[in-house]
Amino acid sequence: MTTFSNKLFKSISNELKQINSNLHTMVEAKHPVLYAAAKQLFNAGGKRIRPAIVIIIAKIFSKNQEVSTEHKRLAEITEIIHTASLVHDDVIDNCETRRGINTVHNIFSNKIAVLAGDFLFAQSSWYLANLNNLEVVKTISKVITDFAEGEVKQGISSFDTQITIQDYIEKSFYKTASLIACSSKAAIMLKNCCTKTQNDFYTYGKHLGLAFQIVDDILDITGSSMKLGKPAGSDLKNGNLTAPLIFALEERPDLNKIVNEEFKSTNDINTAIRIIKSTNGIQKAKDLAEEHLQLAINILVNKYLNENIYDLLLVSYYITNRIN
Length: 324
What we know:
single chain
């Protein structure tokens, strides 16, 4: 378990320990190379934010604080899907490190990495089907479609300085927010709550996921390679134009030339980062993240305030506090 989980999720520490243990069992494969590739992904650690959200939601609607086997399995499925998307992302973006360790394709090959990601998606689908809840299956399955659509949208708009904030938000939903939204909704479905409550938590997860992605994109500009676990400016280098850059372009049109030339010079990334930092781009991106965070939090505070909601509020505030 990560230091993050220990500090932030004391109330669900036992559940998270069990999830970490189960994840390794769930990705076992007969072929040693495929198993080694899958294990490499989970050995990299991670904050386990997505499964934690599922577990906390389950507790919010539990009278005895117990988390069902189905909710624990949903939490594990959520993390497997997330991890599968990361390995595919790393291949597409040609990232050499993830969370400070070598990526799967860097250790093995692109082919093995893609197969490992496919294997994880397949495993998640099998375990999802075994929940024997058709509505949950439909909800979570949509996430995998959204991942693919998000990657296509990102690829089409690569190095496109005409991309709008709305385009960026839509892409961010597909790539990040969809999983948090759908898993939050599915957690409510497993509690047999009404459609209104399901939709509320879907909306909560959507806005939380958008805030999460915006903050990640800010950190790509402002963070150090050591803290990020990958080189700073990776998104820019790969042509993924994010909120800080989009806002900065409004003030500094000279950024267009550097982006249009796809950062051809060795120092172009550093130049672009320096220019972005000289504008209001980062602050505007922070404001955008805060806006989505508040939309998420308002749903919790206005409708579902009880003693168990504070853990969910805590993880929600953590999302933006990473850049403070």
